[in-house]
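Hello,

Our lab assistant flagged a job as stuck in the queue for most of the afternoon. It eventually completed. Since we weren't sure the result was trustworthy after the delay, we are filing this so someone can double-check. Below is the sequence as submitted and the structure that was eventually returned. Let us know if re-running is recommended.
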Amino acid sequence: MWIALAVAAALFQVLRNTAMKRLGHALDEYINVWGRFTFLLPFAFIGSVMGGWPALKPGFFWWCLAFGISQTISTLALSKALKLSAISLVTALWKVSLLILLGMAYVSIGEAPTALGVAGVLLSAAGVYLLNVSRAHIAPWAPLVTLVTDRGQRWTLVAALFYAPSVITIKQAILASNTAAGTFMTYLAASLVMTPIALSTPLEWGARTHPWNPGRAPTPPLEPRAGTC
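-- returned structure --
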């Protein structure tokens, strides 16, 4: 059962990254991330209502808050990376998050992976890395080299670093409640963390209207005064 769920999660994660790439060019990346968290909530709420609200164990709300912070940082960094760099480069480097997750899970919650598990993660990361660099017709070391030259790849590394704690914290939140309630409350926390950031961020030039106020046009860039350089 877990294999089928893992395959489905991987498929939908790829679709999510593709959608974020497209939306990142059509919308402000802050609204992009806010929308991802917020529009998930009605579906998660329906699941939690249908499954019944569980008894919450101690630490549940702290796990939700920790997820909200780490997932916001990770997703915002990923959105910026997808906006600035090619998706093939971002996906290849982002798989570093799996290795970080293994180490962090062992240190923080004592989950020691088996040799087969480590081999699987290494094989998966290597496969995704090589697949993306070959499809992009770039050298195998290109994603690593671009860490120095490409600002988008540096955002990818930030996303990978904060993805690991977000996985650990949502797992702990689910263990302290159930799957539906844990998903709903963690993403509610992420939406609440992201909302003031999205509200306080100026709209980038290029959007047709302000997303929070459809009647408000974005402020155009200042024109230089005549006679000045």
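-- support follow-up --
The delay was a queue issue, not a problem with the job. The result is valid. Confidence is low (pLDDT under 50) at residues 205-229. The chain is about 75% helix and 0% strand.
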